[in-house]
Amino acid sequence: MRLQRLWKRSFRAVLLVAVFSLTACSGKKEEKVSSDNTQKEYVYQPSFEEVDLGMKEYIGSSCLDDGRLYVNYSEWIEDKKNKEGGFSKNYFLSCALDGSDVKKTELKEFKKNEYILNMFLDGEGEKRLLTQKKQKYTLYTLGDDGKVTDSVELVLKKKDKSAGNEEDSFYPNYMTFSEGVLYVGTGDMKIYTFDEKGKQGKTYEALSYIENLFSTPDGKVYVYGSGGEAEEYRMGFQELDTQTGKFGAFSSLGDYDLYNVSIMQGEGSRIYLNDRNSVYSYDLSTGKLEEEFNWLNSDVDGDNVSNCFFLGDGKFFVVDSNYDEEAEGYQTEFVTMNKVKSSDVKEKKVLTIAMAYMDYDLKREILSFNKTSEDVHIEVKAYDAYEDPRKQMNLDFTAGHIPDMININYGVSYDTLAKKGIFTDLYPLIEKDSEIKKEDFFPSVLKAMEKDGKLYTLPSQFSPQFLATSKKVAGDREGWTVDEMLKDYEGMKKGTVFMPYCSRESFVSTMMTQSIQDYVNWDTGEVSFDSDGFIQLLEYSKNFVSDEEYDYEKEESMPVLVKKDKLFVSQVSLYNMNDIQMYYKLYKKKGGLAVMSFPSSDKNNSIVISLDGVALAITEQCKDKEEAWKFVRRFLTYDFQKSSSGSNGIFLSRQDAFEKKLEYAMATKKYTDEDGTEVEPYESGWGWGDYEAKIGPLSEEEAEILRDIVSRVGSCADFGKEMEDIYNIVNEELEAFAAGDKSAKETAEVIQSRAKIYVSENS
User: What pLDDT does residue 444 have?
Assistant: First the structure.
């Protein structure tokens, strides 16, 4: 049978899923050596080859057949006479795996506004291409030259076609062929089948959301997705019995949860999964999952990988497309990943960075650093493939697997890790630096990040958080105690909402989270949940309903509540400088905007920040702190922070970069800055229900409010695993308190006892 012959010859790779999206980032242009800290017997070594395929467009989808790559792409043709400003042309292109012998043809058979969804090989090795025009789907068969040899429309049964405009409408997200039948997985968790004539056959109801659909050389069909409730919605595989329509036992990925994966057929029962961060091997017969290689550690941006094919014999062929701003188009690069013995690889000094989740700026700088460094190679250990990234990271740290650097962001527990003494003080490294000085940064931000006078990390950018209200309420105050805040609220007119969408749980957690230093001190191990202020918060929480009881649809929008003088405070997180205008304009007729701190025992006026961007710390176990600093400092330079997010007004730790961003945010006319940055007046809008506000350049008064906010920065919110556990303790006891089992004082005492034990065990 031809299916067996197809499998035996050269392990033809089959594209089984939709295409990756592309982002801009350059890759290596020469062969480099990759190192693996786990000292595996074998590693993957990449070789790079930049190719010219005569196109600057992104690659729509591709497949590999008999040593040639086949791709499709669309080219936009500008045409002023066309009412849409132009039209698209679809192309079919093939080339050898070294980029030579390029052959291209226009797909003229397609109708106007007919879009290509996917191109793949079927079970017989034929090139298939699926298109869409409105609700019409057509499956084409193409020859090696791109000429259409056959086409059929996928015809839905009447009952399915009638659901075309419903939320669960038919849309082919994933598809695969098996034994001449096309299987199509859709967003409504159904699997449709079609014969060679496009006629719909059996329909299967998937057990849960379909993340992927593929078939193996022996004709078996598998669904990749999340398991049912018994599996706690873990990611894994189930075989579909095409005769009975039943699904086999669910096989999970263990501690891993991989999303947005493409799947490649390997040898025997082995398949390969690519989630843009790494490529994993998975044995369908044993359920064993192993990481083969990490893209970033191989000097490849996984987000730029258009497709990856398993060639057999320990080799992968990679199509990498990245956007080149100077060329104003996509550049294509072919990468071959070769499995070699570790002993045959010339290793550089490797410095590792651990992070709960990957950050784009961090990825970009790692690629840039590795491209220019001759002696050091930065490698990452990102935990986002795990079901609980923070938990797994903490387990590794506890087991003594300490990296050279840690990105203190996205839920990493800065306070508890600092208490354990694993960080290096950055101040001595800054003092030795010829360019970066302590005086470059906001004193308030430095103070917020210090621990006993030592600086372990400094964010490239941050987000201020505070309570917004009117000056009619706050007067000249900037801080208050819990008692003062609640008395002010009691003095408001009847029907006033304390805070938008405020349930019992959110009331306590918001006040506690942003003033956590009043309740937990990881440095000393002191816990103060039995304080009068916290008891008062618990007692007052009786005035709010639970999350489950809260009717969010009945509450009026925040702007309407402000307009009617029916809102006490609103929690604010500023991610962009211009965001301040929203609140400035809302409260302009209410006596003006008052920026209030969260309540504290000493009613200080300090502002809480959360970390954005990159916040790297160097560990005491770092193999080479001087080399690590060369990388960390990249995020603290004026040039880097100024270039962050273009000319948008984000909050930066450097004073000079912040002022430059503020200058851009206040621009009232277009100009080119001295370094070539093109600045245009900010224009945007803000809508909330029926309320709309035009957002434009900042006024001097608004700029002064922002400067004041930054000068008041006093603490950094901790969203790490340990703090989440503390919140869970509070919420558990809050539920018992709401049920009337204990008084507020008794509840606070229980929380105090449980939290003190937890802090003691985790400090």
Answer: 97
